[in-house]
Structures
1.
Amino acid sequence: MLLAADLAAFRRDVEEAEDVIAMSLNRISGGDVVRGAWGTEVRVGQTFWGFAEQAYPGGPRTSTFLAGDLEQELSEAIASRVNRLSVIDRSAAQDWVDAHPEFATMIGLIDPQTATKMYAGMAAESTRAVVDGEEEAWGTGPLAQLFAVAPFAIGTLNGAPATARDEFNRETLRRVLADSTSTEEQRTAAEQTQKGLERAQESSPDGTVVQLVALELPDDGGERDMRAAISVGDLDTARHVGVMIPGMDSSVAVSMDGLVGNAVNMQDAHVRIGNAEATATVVWMGFESPGADPLSQEFFAEEHLAKKGAPLLVRFLNGVDVANPAAETTVHAHSYTTRLATYALGSSQFGGAEVDHLVMYGSPGIAESVRTVDDLVGVPPDEVYSTKSVGDQLEIPLDDVSGVPGYVDDMSSTGDEGQAGLAEVGEQWSDVRGEDNVDPNDASFWAGREPNVFESDGVLGHSADRTKGSDGYWSRGSDSIKDGARITAGRGNEVR
């Protein structure tokens, strides 16, 4: 009976949300002309649907957008569901969670501001206690219940404290590793994540805080559907936060252990440049990365994966900002994810994030909607930086795209120059597809400003990691990673 009542309440939540959306739809008309509630034409972009709101008749009109309404309604409905799961009978809550495994992937849609308030309210009603003679855990209240039946509800909650997300995500990780019914994809991703956590701890100075700040391991997901983010350093108290986003052919299941090494290297770079302020570096693998098979259709990254990943990055960054508003945040994007990051920081429907600094490494071209630095409305134009190694600027003569596979196979097999020229090949491949992606290292991108383009001495190719004959952009002690640390610390004026 409790489960039936619970489902009925959820159905009412959905129906109420649908009613609100339907009311919004009734106020707009199709085509390029949008009319407000009183029939007056509202000037909006041709690619948007919207309606005009007035606080009172005759008052100023504010254009809003249906997508925003839908997002807000979803946020509130999902938050309501989490609140309900935290207080109803525990067995009924567990039954509902078991019947709706897809719900775990929806928590990230909750608005970070809402999430912060929701978590604070739950924490005030919960108590911690020593469990089984070991360390403290949530013993009573809403957080104790969610820890028992749905740890993902806090672990993936953008806007919740990183310490809480870490505790709940580690419980999810423990369960996946202990569950004999976990899929091969889940287990592989979980094992890589566990190795990443261990590597971060073992490779960092004693006392370093390591936090698992995102984890999604859907039981119906493939290798590239797994998501995770690990912070080296305390994300709740850091004065400077760096978010590193790896390029193509990255995944939690294959790469997480190695990717964490990049974050460790960045933390080490802060020490090398003498930055004594508290820092945290996150490796964010919260998106689907394109594969690197030169014969596949997505090689060198079709635009849709960047557009798909950008809103996920927006939510994560907004969550970091809400949870630690005193921190300065820097996005470090390598290769393909310079495209994803510029969508997230641009003014298109895929944007909405705000950061203090952006650093792009080895870009094969950025978001199509971003033509100049001024289009990056989510970051100050003077705090945008880019670098491309000498080897990465090598232009490979291609009569047609059939030359790409052989070139990539050759460079991948030798590795001596870290796949030199791949950024240029990526630009050519985009041109073949009819895409127009600006190179942030070109003077035109800077719109008359002095370009913030710095050299990557010692990097001969495209790789983020060190190769046999070359530093990588993010390899330990490289000039480029030290410059990245300087920019993160607010010392961009020192970058060459």
Note: Residues 2-99 form one domain.
2.
Amino acid sequence: MATVTFANRGNHIGLYIPYFSSKSFGEIIMIIVIFLCLVALWCYIGALFVRHPFIAKGLESYGHIVAPFVLISLGIYILVENGTFNLIFFFN
């Protein structure tokens, strides 16, 4: 999970380089520690969430059907909110 989290953030390199270049070594260490703690917290919350009997049964039965719709919907939402469709279809 942590690898996927790190890999998904590679597209923000234009944001991270200026941000981290303005921070001291101690601040960078603190940012990394906080980030890793929060990733661990989200993983723990996710593990608790899927172990709940009602949710686990639903995910086991319908997860393979629901997951693609959730991910595609999330992707469309992100594209709409960032104005990507305007850039693609109405770019002159």
Note: The two ends are 40 Å apart (CA to CA).
3.
Amino acid sequence: MAQIQFFFFNQDGAICIRGKSTPIAGRTLVITHEGATATLQQQQELESIPFYRADFQEIYLELTDLLKASAPQPIEGELFYQLPLSEAMLQVVHSIGAHNRKVLLQFICTYGLAVDPGTFASLLTHFVDRDHNLIEFIETNALKPWSVKRYASELGINVRKLNYIFHENYGINPKSWLVEKRLQHGHKLLLASNMRISDIALECGFNNHAHFSDSFKKRYSFSPSEIREQVLAVA
């Protein structure tokens, strides 16, 4: 299961999992795997958002205090969970989801732990338990100037296995994820520090200034020096 799919039913509809259709009441969140399909009775557009295991890993520690009050149980069989939502909650979900997936996931999980702590604690634990230490290692060492082969070696696995784990947890290959993570950090440093761009490049795991600048411009449509000039202009 690479994706965990969140379907938001604002009206009555149905969800089909492995050929079995189940009716779903309006104002309901359904959490299931990526192979499921969903429809609404009035043929309106159904809002759905995919998440990966690493998305849950990212918010897990922030919800630790809420999890302590629950007793998670292993999830057996098909992943399928329904959470009723009010009309106001659906509007909030839609508003947050349009801007920030991480905040949306944290909001839903916090709400779920409040109204159905046992089940949501089980869901969170189920999503983060597998490959927990591996993901933590990669997140901790993401800014080191290592190749994908070096990460695999440090973890004691081959590159093919690392690619598979990344697809399962992040939905992309490790090289793309590492570049994105490093560029995000570089962007923050450009906005919030006075570090030289060449030093930022090294800080973010790039071997040289040129590689950082080229990758940065492809990602943000502006070069690091242009971003720095914008910051100085409004300072």
Note: The chain has twelve helices and seven strands.
